[in-house]
Structure formats: structure tokens, C-alpha cells
Give the backbone structure.
Amino acid sequence: MDYSKLGDSIFEISSTVRFVEIYHKDNKYCHVRKDMTPLLEETETEQSIEDALDRWKTRIRLSEKLGAPKYAMAEYGKVKRITIPFNENGLILVSLDCEGFHEVVLKEILEIINSFSKEK
């Protein structure tokens, strides 16, 4: 699996994409858009992915009644963050600028992830 290619494909969708982190099978790809300053320190980013993994486990526990989770989005004062499952036991976190039409960006991200998921 070429995680760098997947990450680059997500960045190409929109200039509003600030950050992409892919966590899959103990592999990790983490990249900030070249012209962006990271909002979190490296240790904060690590804690953030651990928190996202814990929250995703909660969503999975409810999936029998609610259906499988497709993504989760949180809006903060400075960014929007999307958490998306990737293959088995993987997650992709994408941070976006708050401005823009994120429904379109989200749809394209999901399409790209779906095409890469088929590669396994």
C-alpha cells in the first residue's frame, strides 16, 4: 500500500486540506500541507490519533444498532477534522480549513479512500 500516494491524492482534492494522517496495520503516514504551519506539536498529534482510535472503538460498539460508521466530523475554532475508517482497523484523519464547502471535499475523500481500500 502506497500511503504517500493516498495522502497526496487527498491533498490534491482541495487547498482547504491542511493535514492528513493515515494509521493502518501499524504503518503511519503523517503530513502537513507544505504551506501550512502545524497547529499541534508532534506529541499532541500522537495523542490526538490515540484519542481518535478510542472514539472510533466506541462508534464500532454501537454499529450493531446504528449501522457501520462511515466517518465522523468535528468542527473546532480553527479547523474541521474528519475521521474515516480505512480497511480493517485503520483510520484516516483529515484536517480542513473551516472555510469552504466540505461536503464536496468529503465526498471526494471518501471516493479516493474507497479506491485505495480495494488495493489492500
User: Anything to note?
Assistant: The chain has a mean pLDDT of 88.
